Amino acid sequence: MLGTSLSAMRSTHVSLPLRLPRIGYASRRYSVRVLGDSAAKPAVQNVADLKAWPLESGQDCLVEINGWVRNIRKASAVRFVEVSDGSSYSTVQAVVSKEMAEEIRLGAAVRLKGLWKLQSPPQVFSPPPEEPAPTPDEKPSRLPQIKFIDPAPDAREERPKITVPVGELQVDEVQILGASDPDTYPIQRKYTSPETLRNWPHLRMRTNLNSTLLRLRSDTIGSLSKIFNQENFIQTHPPIITSADCEGAGEAFKVIGGTRESPFFDSPKFLTVSSQLHLEAMAQAAGNVWTLSPSFRAERSDTNRHLSEFYMLEAEMSFVDDMDEVMDLVQRMTRSLVQDLAQQSSWKELEHARRHPRGPAETRTLEDLDDIAVLERRWNGMLVPEKWPRITYSEAINILEEHIDKFERPPVWGQGLGSEHEKFLAELIGYDKERNAYVPVFVTHYPRDIKAFYMRESAAEHHIKGQIVVDCFDLIAPDIGELAGGSMREHLLHKIITNLRHFSLEASANDPRLKWYVDLRRWGCPPHGGFGIGFDRLLSYLTGVRSIRDLVAFPRLYGRTDC
């Protein structure tokens, strides 16, 4: 209670609204503070803000910077200390006297105070060329594209330059907040391969590239939240501990609770391999739902595309009877995401660093990513406004059989497509030469026997060789293979029971682990469908990070979990 009750105050004619007593919160200390009476103080809170601050030349200001030492360069009387707070790919240069810099070491956490001054001359960059706008009667020759590649040097010289003021901190006060031993600190300024950095997952995020990838991941989540909100979906939090293996593949981690002899749970429990089943239940209450949740699979796969713990973006739509609507949503969401990410500072900084690397170590680090021309084709493909190509599984097999000599494992109707098959199809069908684009490709209507029990049987005209096919799709792309998968879910009670019987899961219809899922069909289950996208794999495709082990902060994989 805050003093007198509301009814008592009303009886004594206290006017509302009330002003609550001031508790006395401490002002938050951001990583960067502009000291004094500068009008810019509220806007500058981190290094990214500071570097973007439009300070006029000669208008020096007292600034405090908190961050980590990324590099130290020595001169005769001063030390040039590069400091980062993780908010920007680039660092702040602090000029520190030789005496004050005696305790500053690589990796240390420091607080520096001094005058923020503009360097002279400022840095100069050339903007990408602008394409002429088409006339009212003229169609554009190609789509608006995300520009990555610098034009030829002679073309750059003809264009106006962009002047970017660059500041540095003239330090007059140093405080060591967290010491670091440079002899044992593993993150050095020299080039370190991704494979070596995996030995220190708790430290590798301190590199410029990996800290930027963390921010890009956060920006992607923010963009997805906005996009799904615009599509009238609600975000949900399905459980991580479940009773059933959604895919039925037996690749789930079993949960063992506590150390007592008696079991913690009343029946076997597993870490979820997919949130789909629970999302279906939520969709029957809220209509359209989505989640970005961790999933776990005990696959013994040792590839750059597999992890034991990963994040899945999953969505379910109620009252949808046409699978095209689900595929349309996947394309619309992905296209909107790419458009939004292109405007985020994390992506712009990563793209700028690739065009203007600082030194041989950074050049080699960025060369570990996929070629920037390849990224251009990927992003352009995501931006295509027309419907992405859609072929059936049977059509895909026919195409693959025409190129059978290109594969280690020959394509066979009735078997799943291998990664080599998916990549080949995506490049052959999805490449748009005119637009310089790799357009993702939907492969639809797979045989029932190689898919999950919950998928809806397709109309008879889709059946091949007397085999039942189901209303499902995989979204494939070059270099990475499958990006997404989805289907129409079987919503009729007698048919879901038939499916369980076909997959030798009939007992599950009365097993508490799946009975609740079957029961959804007893009470008002409408036609519905949904999809799932491997979130880490999507980020790998868009950023050019070749292994998702280097995109996830703490990767969990077969045979290795370091911390």
Give the DSSP E fraction (strand runs of 2 or more residues). 15-25%
- Low-pLDDT regions: 124-145, 148-163
Strand order of the largest sheet: 9-13-14-21-20-19-18-15
Radius of gyration: 28 Å
Q: Mean pLDDT, as a whole number? A: 86
CATH topology of the largest domain: BirA Bifunctional Protein, domain 2
Strand elements, count: 21
Question: Given the C-alpha coordinates, what overall shape results?
Answer: elongated
CATH architecture of the largest domain: 2-Layer Sandwich
**Count of individual helical segments:** 15
CATH class of the largest domain: Alpha Beta
State the end-to-end distance: 45 Å
Question: In percent, how helical is the residue content?
Answer: 25-40%
By secondary-structure content and strand pairing, the structural class works out as alpha+beta
- The fourth-level CATH homologous superfamily of the largest domain is Bira Bifunctional Protein, Domain 2
EC number: 6.1.1.22
InterPro entries: Aa-tRNA-synt_II (IPR004364), aa-tRNA-synth_II (IPR006195), aa-tRNA-synth_II/BPL/LPL (IPR045864), Asn-tRNA-ligase (IPR004522), Asp/Asn-tRNA-synth_IIb (IPR002312), NA-bd_OB-fold (IPR012340), NA-bd_OB_tRNA (IPR004365)
GO biological process, one term: asparaginyl-tRNA aminoacylation
GO cellular component, one term: mitochondrion
